[in-house]
Amino acid sequence: MTRLLDALVYRGGRHVALGAGLWLGLYFAARAALELDGLLPWVRVTIALAPVPAFAWFLREFVAAVSGMDELERRIQLEALAVAFPLTLLLVMTLGLLQIAIELNMNDWSYRHLWPLLYVFYLLGLTRARRRYL
Q1: Residue 20: is its pLDDT beyond 90?
Q2: Which DSSP string corresponds to 11-39?
Q3: What single-letter DSSP state applies at residue 69?
Q4: Interatomic CA distance for residues 32 and 30, integer angstroms
Q5: Which of 17, 28, 97, 116 is deepest in the core (most CB within 10 A)?
Q6: Of all residues in the chain, what percent carry a pLDDT higher than 70?
Q7: Can you give the pLDDT at residue 81?
Q8: Looking only at Cα atoms, what is the longest distance across the chain?
Q9: What pTM was computed for the model?
Q10: What gap in Å lies between CA 105 and CA 111, rounded to an integer?
Q11: In the 8-state DSSP scheme, what is residue 50?
């Protein structure tokens, strides 16, 4: 686990944890700000898009960190994503079909509620791959 933290937290001057923290901070700040009434539409769109550059930076840093990992760690990351991606497709497909069949409450099943599950799927895949290889 220490190798993964070393690779992700600091790899060649790239700070993945900083990027993730900045993105999450901006995301939750945007969510809070969008709850305010009386904002002009262009202000609301600007607020909604504020976390996007931080997430793009986080992705760039994460990919750079993975590129700097050894072959085993890369394989573990690939297997984690190979589990997370199909689980995500299964979730989206199931919710799409259920939405046709019955009325789903958008306060419980909107996109803003689903994205944390994608991270959970990645962690499930990562745990599975780590148990297999380490």
Answers
A1: no
A2: BTTB-HHHHHHHHHHHHHHHHHHHTSSS-
A3: S
A4: 5
A5: 17
A6: 90
A7: 94
A8: 54
A9: 0.75
A10: 12
A11: T
Closest CA to 124 of 73, 84, 82: 84
The pair of structure tokens assigned to 106 is: 């958008």
What is the pLDDT, as a whole number, of residue 12? Answer: 46
**Distance between first and last Cα of the chain:** 10
Cα(121)–Cα(86) distance, rounded to whole angstroms?
9
What tokens were used for 26? 């901006």
Q: Round to whole Å and give the CA distance between 87 and 126.
A: 13
**CA 13, CA 128: separation in Å to the nearest integer?**
29
C-beta separation of 61 from 30 below 8 A: no
Per-residue pLDDT tens digits for 39-75: 999 999 999 999 999 999 999 988 888 888 899 999 9
